[in-house]
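Researcher: Here's my situation. A collaborator sent me these components and asked whether they could plausibly form a single complex. I don't have experimental data yet, so a predicted model of the whole assembly would be a useful starting point for our discussion.
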Amino acid sequence: MPLRIVIVGGGPTGTAIAHNLASWKTADNEKPVEVFVYERYPAATIYTPSSNHSRAYVIALNYRGQSALRRLQIVPENITNAVVADAVVTHRPPKKKTTQLTPPHVRPLEDKYRQVIAKRQDMTSYFEQLAEKSGATLHHEHELVDVDWKQKIATFRHRGLIHKVGYDLLIGADGTKSVVRTLLDQHCQTEQPRKGFSPSFRVEATECDRMEYQVAVIPQPGSEILGSVWKNDTKQLKRKRPLIQDTDVHSWNSKKYNAMCLAFPIQQSVKTTNNTHNPLGLLFAVIFPGGMLEAFRQQAKQNGKVVQSDQSYEAALESLLHDVPKHVRSDIIDQLKGGDFANGGNCVRALCQ
Ligand SMILES: Cc1cc2nc3c(=O)[nH]c(=O)nc-3n(C[C@H](O)[C@H](O)[C@H](O)COP(=O)(O)OP(=O)(O)OC[C@H]3O[C@@H](n4cnc5c(N)ncnc54)[C@H](O)[C@@H]3O)c2cc1C
């Protein structure tokens, strides 16, 4: 009998592992495992978050992330709409007592350290397809609500109905607020001590990422958005490459707001009458300390469209994105006002004895 593996969570990790496990074969070409993925949301292939929804954020895979995927037999560059970035452009605030802009610093990335950038949605949907091709079964809109650790039965809620699933091995790939981890922790704290056993698994909170993220997508590439600001830079002539290229990653920071913004090149699918082409755009991920984005939003509601206070998106983004043309900044602000927040969640350490 093949080992029955149930993976909870069909995000990038759950679907990538499912693809790898479901590809296993014995020397006799038999499948030693059966793999099932249970995800609480609809399939990434069909679920389309609006461009400024937190689930639309991009994942920039560094060398470590790319190596991990290669070990699972996934080629990161093949992820749908992936862009390979080979330089990071750091935008520096104007020097004190002058309004003159300081040219950004360009750091080219060596081949090994190039970043592969893809929208989380595209990445997950690509891994879903690989997992299914390898023979894994994916169940969407199934939320894990309970686990019977002794009987090895996981309970899912599916469209209001309860669905019980037996397993030989349960894998929790359900993100930073993992329900699998919480249930296992509760089980070890309550069940085992009562019977005289010491817990074999314990979760300790180490830190909590209180920063909040929001995203906005601008359909023009980096050279168009920032090219007009930097095209007259005289030093550019001495450089080996144009100051701003479309596949660059950009970063800005503001000490005043303890905030940062990263802009990633993304491919956008544009359907024309004849074909589909993928021009590059930029996805701006703005990151502020927890609570600040909500404060900006409240200000915007109270004061109408234009808010002069320091506690507003307008003032904060003017400080942060100082060299981004005003009309682009206004577009970003409009998207942020209507978008959702995401945060990094809790960092925990799982202690197994
Ligand atoms: C704004 C933002 C930007 C980021 N940028 C980067 C980056 O640039 N580079 C990078 O490497 N990482 C980045 N990360 C981190 C990256 O998103 C995570 O490392 C990655 O998503 C982890 O994938 P995962 O599948 O483990 O978890 P998740 O992506 O969290 O997926 C977990 C899945 O489990 C499902 N789930 C949860 N609970 C249940 C349940 N009870 N039952 C069933 N299903 C459940 C969820 O719906 C979800 O689909 C970023 C994160 C955020 C929030």
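Model: Some features of this prediction you could bring to your collaborator: The mean pLDDT is 87. The pocket of flavin-adenine dinucleotide is lined by residues 8-14, 38-41, 57, 59-61, 65, 120, 143-144, 173-175, 179, 213, 342, 344 (CB under 6 Å).
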